[in-house]
Design a protein that fits this description.
By secondary structure, this protein is largely without helices or strands. The chain has no helices and 2 strands. It is elongated, with a radius of gyration of 15 Å.
Length: 71
């Protein structure tokens, strides 16, 4: 028997922001789901990679761990 683990997956798919005017707001929601067998820790949100400075996090509603099957 093994210990159940949280297994978080982020549904980002492919999203093309297209032409966007500088300093305008073009929101996109991403969904984090726990596909594992136990509650996760509290997820944190960060943006990294090429040109990450061009993006901001406007809402982080992750205030508690995710139960199995929760998003």
């Amino acid at each position: 028997t093994g210990i159940a683990r949280a297994n978080l997956s982020l549904d980002v798919g492919t999203y093309n922001y297209g032409d966007t005017i500088l300093r305008t707001y073009n929101p996109k929601t991403f969904t984090l789901t726990n596909n594992g067998g136990t509650i996760s820790g509290v997820p944190t949100v960060s943006i990294s990679g090429a040109d990450s400075i061009q993006f901001v996090t406007t809402a982080n509603t992750c205030s508690t761990g995710l139960a199995p099957g929760a998003s």
